[in-house]
């Protein structure tokens, strides 16, 4: 007796089902997925395509950084816009024009960014936003707060969102991040790197509680896509990331003032956090933060996804050797060249999808040099191998300089960035009355204090901050 599965009809049916399954797989289509935890391009007819940033502007409701805004930026600051802005790498914003207004009016604001430490060292995708932040700090000469959702906050974020990672490991991995950030040359007197695990408390924690009260569970689910199976820590975590956007979270820096806004440079995937921040900030008596969004540094395999620490061959790490950099780019970097050298010489390549060329847009400030590479590649005059060699040289030089700087960072250097209480800082700020003053911050008998000196005088008033109250101690000579 013949088994049913062996009959000709059964085999035909099985083949038809298999054929249908294959067709269904190849015709799979779904939109791109951009969240604070996942980034992947859309799938069209079974093939993943590059991330559509124009669609993201429409989806998130942000504004494009256009030529008019770039022109105003240069006029207001006196500085040529950073190559990241000129080339559309930082491509989108919320209220950047308001920050330029404040700069013109000599009103205070600050920068806020963060880092979620992963196992091991940062990769280039992590580093480039800090490179841009450092430039912004130089241009505006303003304070910068860096939340380490790791030594600080990624401890908790990575612990909450990454299964299999212990809290202790997350903390350990993030400690090295301070050295890497310090190596980029931020101003120690105007930069505060803090850990959520170490810093949460006092006014910072008060703001977290106020924020948590302003966000319902249904709102968190709608904004972040949380489900009933997610741990409650995930739902609470956005409150911790929102808190640094409020100046009153840092009484040591801003004396308890609530009216100082911040500018947040971040990847476009982080916008949901701060869209929510903007929704609740006015209700809590704080100004809305401004944002400037970046595109993702593509993975070595192409612009369908971003670099990932968990996939070593998609990324170039700050600790990579010269040989590793060369090997990764030669072996793994996606090429926009033709299939053969003959065809490439005949038809040229496509620099718009060529990863080595795209990387150089992030590292080479010389617009004319890049244009020559772009045009030469399109005409087939520059080969894929030559483009990769240019890229290898540029990144090797960048990381060699960075590694030299990192090796010179001492433990004492890192404490300057992470411990406000260890020394006295002086910075130029604008008072409520608009009078330029020097503010020195420090500790006195275990209490926070600020010494305020009216422009040019050598007599100052010492104020002691106890919780949110201020006690005037008196004048002193210094």
UniProtKB/TrEMBL annotation:
Residue ranges that the Swiss-Prot or TrEMBL entry lists as coiled coil: none
CDD domains from the UniProt entry: TrpRS_core
Annotated compartments: Cytoplasm
UniProt EC number: 6.1.1.2
Main location: cytoplasm
GO molecular function, one term: tryptophan-tRNA ligase activity
UniProt-listed Pfam families: tRNA-synt_1b (PF00579)
InterPro entries, per database record: aa-tRNA-synth_Ic (IPR002305), Rossmann-like_a/b/a_fold (IPR014729), Trp-tRNA-ligase (IPR002306)
GO cellular component: cytoplasm
A biological process term (GO) from this entry: tryptophanyl-tRNA aminoacylation
Catalytic activity as recorded in UniProt: tRNA(Trp) + L-tryptophan + ATP = L-tryptophyl-tRNA(Trp) + AMP + diphosphate + H(+)
Family named by the database record: Belongs to the class-I aminoacyl-tRNA synthetase family.
Name by which UniProt lists this protein: Tryptophan--tRNA ligase, cytoplasmic
The organism's taxonomic lineage, starting at the top: Eukaryota, Fungi, Fungi incertae sedis, Zoopagomycota, Kickxellomycotina
């Amino acid at each position: 007796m013949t088994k049913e599965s062996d009959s000709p009809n059964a085999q035909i049916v099985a083949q038809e089902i298999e054929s249908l399954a294959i067709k269904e797989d190849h015709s799979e289509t779904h939109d791109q997925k951009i969240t604070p935890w996942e980034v992947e391009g859309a799938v069209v007819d079974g093939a993943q395509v590059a991330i559509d940033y124009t669609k993201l502007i429409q989806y998130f409701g942000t504004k494009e950084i256009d030529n008019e805004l770039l022109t105003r930026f240069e006029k207001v600051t006196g500085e040529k816009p950073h190559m990241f802005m000129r080339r559309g790498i930082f491509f989108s914003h919320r209220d950047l024009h308001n920050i330029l207004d404040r700069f013109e009016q000599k009103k205070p604001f600050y920068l806020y960014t963060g880092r979620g430490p992963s196992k091991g060292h940062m990769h280039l995708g992590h580093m480039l936003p800090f490179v841009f932040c450092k430039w912004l700090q130089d241009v505006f000469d303003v304070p910068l707060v860096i939340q380490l959702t790791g030594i600080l906050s990624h401890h908790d974020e990575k612990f909450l969102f990454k299964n299999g990672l212990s809290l202790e490991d997350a903390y350990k991995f993030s400690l090295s991040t301070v050295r890497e950030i310090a190596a980029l040359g931020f101003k120690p007197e105007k930069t505060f790197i803090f850990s959520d695990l170490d810093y949460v408390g006092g006014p910072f924690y008060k703001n977290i509680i106020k924020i948590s009260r302003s966000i319902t569970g249904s709102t968190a689910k709608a904004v972040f896509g949380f489900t009933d199976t997610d741990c409650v820590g995930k739902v609470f975590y956005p409150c911790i990331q929102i808190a640094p956007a409020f100046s009153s979270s840092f009484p040591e820096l801003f004396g308890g003032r609530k009216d100082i806004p911040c500018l947040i440079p971040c990847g476009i995937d982080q916008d949901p956090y701060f869209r929510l921040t903007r929704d609740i900030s006015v209700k809590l008596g704080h100004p809305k933060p401004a944002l400037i969004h970046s595109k993702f540094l593509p993975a070595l395999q192409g612009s369908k996804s971003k670099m990932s620490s968990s996939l070593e061959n998609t990324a170039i790490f700050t600790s990579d050797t010269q040989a590793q950099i060369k090997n990764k780019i030669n072996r793994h970097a996606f090429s926009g060249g033709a299939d053969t050298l003959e065809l490439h010489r005949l038809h040229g390549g496509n620099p718009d999808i060529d990863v080595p060329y795209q990387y150089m847009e992030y590292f080479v400030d010389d617009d004319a040099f890049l244009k020559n590479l772009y045009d030469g590649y399109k005409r087939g005059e520059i080969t894929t191998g030559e483009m990769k060699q240019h890229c290898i040289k540029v990144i090797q030089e960048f990381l060699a300089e960075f590694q030299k700087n990192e090796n010179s960072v001492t433990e004492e250097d890192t404490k300057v960035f992470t411990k406000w209480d260890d020394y006295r800082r002086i910075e130029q700020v604008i008072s409520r009355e608009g009078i330029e003053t020097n503010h020195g911050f420090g500790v006195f008998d275990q209490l926070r204090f600020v010494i305020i000196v009216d422009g040019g005088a050598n007599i100052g008033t010492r104020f002691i901050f106890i919780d949110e109250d201020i006690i005037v101690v008196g004048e002193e000579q210094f």
